[in-house]
Amino acid sequence: MAFIPYGKQQLEKDDIDAVVETLQSDYLTTGPKVKEFEDALAAYCGVKYCVAVANGTAALHLASLVLLNKDDKVLTTPNSFLATSNAILYAGAKPIFVDIAEDGNIDLDLCEKALQKDPTIKALYAVAFSGNMVDQVKLKHLKETYHITILEDCAHAMGAKDSDVKAASCTNSDISILSFHPVKHMTTGEGGAITTNSKEMYEQLLTLRGHGMVKTPEMKPWEYEMRELGFNYRITDMQCALGLSQLKKLDTFIARRIQIAKKYDEAFKNTLVKPLYPYNGKSSYHLYVVQVDFSKLKLSKVDLFNKLRDKSIGIQLHYIPINKQPYYKALGYGDESTPVMDNYYEESFSLPMYSSLSPEEQNYVIQQLFKFIKGYM
Ligand SMILES: Cc1ncc(COP(=O)(O)O)c(C=O)c1O
After folding, report:
1. Which residue has the least CA distance to atom 10 on ligand 1?
2. Ligand 1 centroid to 181 CA: how many Å?
3. What is the DSSP string of 195-208?
4. How far apart are the C-alpha atoms of 31 and 49, rounded to whole Å?
5. What average pLDDT does the segment 230-252 reach?
6. DSSP states of 39-100
């Protein structure tokens, strides 16, 4: 069996043709495809404004410069990729790590307790972990009651929905971010986007993406003014052409992911392998995470990883608690009380999940997983 990673892109001839067409056009970057992609993303997510950028981390960086001030306290989750809380640090602000709930998302009830205890907390960075939307009723309640700034990291959640609320629509948040890394639902190679319903934030984000430069109609033809310290976080027209092509197929990709999730759910019913959450109509399944109580097995998690990787199955762990990373420990983090996250870290791993995963490959993953688990009971 060829190696089966935990995630990968699905590229077809129309995607390649779209990129080649742009390569043969007049603009490789800062051309028409960028705005076209931004408009298409905004329409898909149901949000007013969208700024496409070089990657999801750049999106988080710019969003944080717009949303946060130095020393602001920001509630966030330990269960994410490093980029989420790193962006808080980029802005000179202070992450406060809150434990997760059983579905792997930040525990919003604990966030409320923290906000009641410390009214100086300024913001919440919530991640729709694995593609599972953060509870929008609770998010709305926190925003309205405590007047906090909210960023939704939807890097995992393109196309997800919580009843009527679409991922990255910023219905109950100030800014959302997306990532188009190849393991995500759709790809531009590297790439990301920021969405918002605020015109003011949109304009700030555009300026920050391009070196902090501003050009107005009143200026001389050669003139531009640098008004802020910005960056070159531009995305290219080739990438946006690929993104536009992928976006057309996004709903098909997500439908396939949901089909795969339902098949895993069925296979794991009443077994030692527990899905992090069974199909809930909300998740667009960037990841399919399962939990196994290894204390009931004569097999450690390391052994299982090694055995499955020897069988060409690239299971992965999402995530090591960010607050326990050496860099964060050196800043004084790591001793927060996060019992749910601690247990999650012991028991969880992600199985292969991507739109082109074939039924044969999926059967093979299930069969190999059971083989090792049953053989070591
Ligand atoms: C939750 C989350 N946020 C942000 C990012 C950063 O995105 P990128 O890799 O496009 O910089 C990632 C990347 O995997 C992620 O998983």
Report:
1. 56
2. 8
3. EES-HHHHHHHHHH
4. 18
5. 98
6. HHHHHHHT-SEEEEES-HHHHHHHHHHHH--TT-EEEE-SSS-THHHHHHHHTT-EEEE--B
Hey, what are 257's tokens?
A: 């992911």
Which ligand 1 atom is nearest residue 318's CA? 16
Sign, CA torsion 294/8/253/128: positive
- Give every CB contact of residue 104 below 8 A, 6+ residues apart in sequence: 79, 129, 130, 132, 276, 277, 289, 344, 348
Q: Which amino acids bring their CB within 6 angstroms of ligand 1?
A: 55-57, 60, 80-81, 83-84, 127, 153, 155-156, 179, 181, 192
pTM beyond 0.70, yes or no? yes
Question: If pLDDT is split at 50, 70 and 90, which confidence band does 375 have?
Answer: confident
Nearest to 64 by CA among 154, 177, 156, 167: 177
Ligand 1: centre distance to CA 125 (Å): 13
DSSP one-letter code for 229: -
For tokens 């920021």, name the residue. 194
Q: Residue 281: how many CB atoms within 10 A of its CB?
A: 9
The H or E element spanning position 291 is strand 288-291
For residue range 84-111, list pLDDT tens digits in order: 999 999 999 999 999 999 999 999 999 9
